[in-house]
Amino acid sequence: MSNQIRCPHQWSQSTTFEPNWTQGTCDSVWTPQSCQPIAPTPNPVFPITATLPTCAPLELKQTCPGTVLVTVSIPTEAIFTLPTKALEIKKIRKNLKITQCRFFNFSPRVYGKPQDTPKLFLGGFVRKDIQYSEAIRQTAHTVEGTIRDFVVDLPWTCVVDLGHHLIIPPTLFGQQQEYEFLKTSSLPCGFSSKDKLMSGDISEFNMVSNEFLNALPNCTLVYSQINEMDDALDREPLKGGPFEEGLFRTVQEKMIILIQLRLTFETEIDPPVKG
Predict the structure, then answer these.
(1) What predicted TM-score, i.e. pTM, was given to this entire model?
(2) Looking at the predicted structure, is the pLDDT value of residue 237 above 90?
(3) For the range 31-39, what are the long-range contacts, defined as Cβ-Cβ under 8 Å and sequence gap of 24 or more?
């Protein structure tokens, strides 16, 4: 798998999965340095990157001034390894889990400069409960096996560009304003007796601070759909079994995750004035 192209949304595993407690190399005579644990190999392996993929929404619909329906399609790909060799996958039960739905508003417009768009940060994982058959014994015409179960979490992430066309409440910024009082005092020698020193009082400091607590919109999952394709990457013939049977452990999975979310803004939004 070293020649496979690595993508931001693809996770791969270079070695087979083995529990952490079975790993380690020890000498016959134990010393603190003779038995060093080997770092576990995650299954699947995740990339370390700060760049998140951007997903163009399929539909943005503002049902009312304070509610927005967001529909997005998220393509994902993962490579995972089963704990034992599988003869055939019998059933895969999938559940979509959303761990992040964070609205990120745009900054105020600066005259003569481009303006960014609001974003929606999405993240989560798909829990897959895989049931597969494992061959126990076989003949030239039959295969006897047992059913095994394997659960794996496949993470996904996406940033949705909400565009410029939605009516979204602006972000209110805190303000600090200083003010002074006039102070009048006499001038020293060398000035006319009719003149006075008029200025702000530098012996005082006065300020008004305004703090606005902006409310994040509520995010609700309305609908989800998962369309997947699973392919065995290391399938080999079953020795001593029927000619068309084979065993595999490494599976490449492609998924299209369709999600519809409802964003509800608690802040009241004035509808646009027609005219």
Answers:
(1) 0.68
(2) yes
(3) none
